[in-house]
Amino acid sequence: MRDDAGAQNTQTDAQPGALGHITVLDLTRVRAGPSCCRVLADFGANVIKIDAPEGMDRNTGVAGSQHGFDMLNLHRNKRSMTLNLKTPEGRALFLEMAAQADVVVENYRPGVKTRLGIDYDALSAVNPGIILASISGFGQTGPYAERPGFDQIAQGMGGFMGVTGQPGQPMRAGTAVADLSSGVYAATGILIAFAERAQSGQGQWVQASLLASQIALMDFQAARYLVEGEVPEATGNDHPTITPMGVVATADGHINLAVGGNGQWQALAEAMGHPEWAENPDYAEIDARTGHRDEIWALLRPVFAEKPSAHWIELLNAHGIPTGPIYRMDEVFADPQVAHLGMAQPVEHHARGEVHVVGQPVRLSRTPATMRRAAPDPGEHTDDLLAEFGLSPERIAALRAAKAI
């Protein structure tokens, strides 16, 4: 909760972490919003997940079982209370909580928060320092603002599927890249707004969308069009502008090969026992190699097929040529480097015992992310949280009788 409001941070059951002085009211569902709040929670923020009372959310279960892998991974380090924002008592209570909080995160369709009376104007009226983060499919305004958003729709509209897969066969990513990136971008915006608030004392409205986030992820592919007027095409597993960079078959499987600069091309030719490749002027420069893409792969493939993947990975990395395996998920977490990075983090769950969730990829030397608690059941902490916000047992009972919680 806000230090300048005189409220005490209530995370007394664990080390506070880098964001232990921040209280977040999490109204989000599905993936983009929850992943934003997960970043804040993992680094110590007091994230309060606000769930609808039982039977009131028509989309309950969209992320699977309450104790399933997705919910456990998305909502760790949060506490949960129930609140019915459609009741006058529920809305009044939410504004009372927002007056003491730092951040509200929501991913309703743009008009919903206004109809509920919890839009930025309403929140800032009770707390000028509040930061509202809104995550939507297409943005808060514009011709598509009220359309329902979904990750795969954004992948298609943002250009990702147009350059992924084989030519003429659009392909989605194997994970929710638009959802997850919009969550990270929203978390970044929240932290920027929080840093600015330290100077101005004022909050602001942070907005992220799946569509804009997906376009931002296109990065150099989008810039090719904006700067050069080139419309990128799908190139399968080959890099669109650099050769040889892609997937190649070995004697026992496939590996990823990434030959970027001219020095790496020369090193590859030497390592593979074909120094004449490096001497060929048609292959000397990056642009020239890409112009002879088919020829180069025709030279490489028979040689790679002679020996197993492990041989090439060891040999080429020793020559400074980026080369790596193509893992299934069980192989990912069996890799010693992945184990060293701590990407599988244990947390104790009341129903499932110790489970492992996906760790944060960012490391801080003094205040790292921690797994302090498992994902909560809906309403698990309602009474405790409301008491921390100063509500008496009698008022909590009255709210429950009014079906506000």
Could you explain the architecture of this structure?
With 405 residues, the protein is of the alpha/beta class. The chain folds into 2 domains: 3-217 and 344-401, 3-Layer(aba) Sandwich (Rossmann fold); 245-328, formyl-coa transferase, domain 3 (2-Layer Sandwich). The chain has 19 helices and 11 strands. The chain has helices at residues 32-42, 69-74, 88-98, 112-116, 120-126, 151-157, 160-163, 177-200, 210-218, 220-228, 262-271, 275-279, 286-291, 293-304, 309-318, 329-334, 336-341, 382-388, 393-401, and strands at 23-26, 46-51, 79-82, 103-106, 131-136, 205-209, 245-249, 254-258, 323-325, 344-349, 353-358. The strands form 3 sheets. The protein has a 6-stranded parallel β-sheet, sandwiched between helices. Strands 7-8-9 form a 3-stranded antiparallel β-sheet, with helices on one face. Strand 2, helix 2 (69-74) and strand 3 form a beta-alpha-beta unit. Helix 1 crosses helix 8 (177-200), helix 6 crosses helix 9 (210-218) and helix 8 (177-200) packs across helix 9. The chain is elongated and about 85 Å long. Mean pLDDT is 94; it is low at 1-14.
